[in-house]
Amino acid sequence: MKVAFYDAKPYDRPGFDRYAQDAGLEIKYFDTHLNEDTVSLAAGAECVCVFVNDVVNAQVVDALYDLGVRMVALRCAGFNNVDTRACYGKLHVFRVPAYSPYAVAEHAMAMLLTINRRIHKAYNRTREFNFSLNGFAGFDLHGKTVGVIGTGKIGKVFANICKGFEMRVLAYDKFPDPSTGLEYVSLEELFSASDVISLHCPLTDETHHIIDEEAIHRMKKGVTILNTSRGALIDTEALIEGIKEKKVGAACLDVYDEEADLFYEDFSGHIVQDDKLVRLIAMPNVIVTSHQAFLTNEALDSIAHTTVENIRKFFAGIPSPETEVCYHCGNQDACRKDRDEKCF
Ligand code: NAD
Asked: Are 314 and 272 in a shared domain?
């Protein structure tokens, strides 16, 4: 089984090489993203392995199918970059639904602590032997209210971490889970009552720009917004306006709407053309990390293991309904996934 592995990074290879050898996979690594221009690199492969910023649109799907590719193995949880309707009947799409929710939730808390206590600024000051504390006053997390939007695997872990700081946790989810014991409220109430808001829902048509001008208008003055989920959950222009008007006190962004052409690459010697991102990075109360919340050794190992298992099972003809995406094929009454079968 031959796999074309796009957007390969040095930290991907050790885990994948180890598990691939045992499974008899032959992986060809490419540094480039998958898109219309690079799809031909997959010639000779039966599977493409892709990450968050690879493009699997209808044009790419058709080109992959014509090349003989039959499987897309996402090495991540989110799949908003894949046109699953275009894939239906042609390419089977598998993902890694869970690897380490702790990695992402802990990163969200790391960003909150950093921005609140100005650790990023303090680190630079003391390196210059500047021991002044001016401008560094933060706030106690203890007793503050945090609003968690999306209480799935990551949101639940983040809520628990916040409880460890003795914060009051409010939650909003389209499908509330009573077993969490969390206090679910409406989105409006969460916006108006929270000192900190953290996004942990997937990017869908419904959640696109869930934080927009109107949402920011409803928030407390000085609110801190955390986004470790997907960039397009936030209307970036509305966020920038909110920060300029001092309505938003701070923002921690591990993801960014237009990240695809920038994140994971070194642009330190270039003039970055994205004015909104440059503006955000220039703001003292904004921290941007490069979609790194998942990046722990435990998560990398788990991602490699599950992805290789997905590929091995697919080519062995073993259904894996728990890791195959839903194509929303319309056959709800006769869903094959429910019968533990392949979707097509
Ligand atoms: P999950 O599926 O376990 O949880 C998602 C939760 O969002 C569910 O409880 C679901 O009911 C809820 N939800 C769905 N639609 C909603 C809506 N319209 N409004 C409010 N809530 C809604 O997913 P997870 O593993 O917790 O991951 C959450 C997100 O984190 C992923 O979708 C992905 O985008 C992101 N993520 C980011 C990184 C990173 O490195 N930054 C890594 C992994 C995942």
From this structure: no
* Core vs surface per residue 1-27: b (16+ CB within 10 A) or e: bebbbbbbeeebeebbeebbeeeebeb
Q: Does residue 173's CB lie within 6 angstroms of at least one atom of ligand 1?
A: yes
Last residue of a domain, one of 288, 306, 330: 288
Q: Is the CB of 151 under 6 A from ligand 1?
A: yes
CA of 135 to the centre of ligand 1 (A): 35
Report the distance separating Cα 17 and Cα 111, nearest Å: 32
Has 92 been annotated as catalytic? no
Among candidate residues 95, 230, 312, 324, the one labeled active-site is 230
For residues 135 and 228, state if they share a domain.
yes
The pLDDT tens digits for 131-155 are: 999 999 999 999 999 999 999 999 9
Among 106, 148, 149, 154, residue to substitute to test ligand 1 (most atoms within 8 Å of Cβ): 154
259 is catalytic: yes
pLDDT over 90 (residue 104): yes
Active-site residue flag, 209: no
Tell me which residue range forms the domain holding 34: 2-99+297-339
What pLDDT is stored for residue 288 in this prediction?
98
Give the relative orientation of helices 297-315 and 13-23 as an angle to the nearest 10 degrees: 30
Strands (E), 9-149: 26-29, 47-50, 71-74, 92-94, 145-149
344 is a domain residue: no
Query: Would you say the CB of residue 77 lies under 6 angstroms from ligand 1?
Result: yes
Q: What are 266-315's pLDDT values in tens digits?
A: 999 999 999 999 999 999 999 999 999 999 999 999 999 999 999 999 99
Other C-beta atoms closer than 10 Å to the C-beta of 173 total: 19
Query: Cβ–Cβ contacts within 10 Å for residue 175, how many?
Result: 7
Choice from 173, 191, 228 to test ligand 1 binding pocket (greatest atom count within 8 A of CB):
173
CATH of the domain at 144: 3.40.50.720
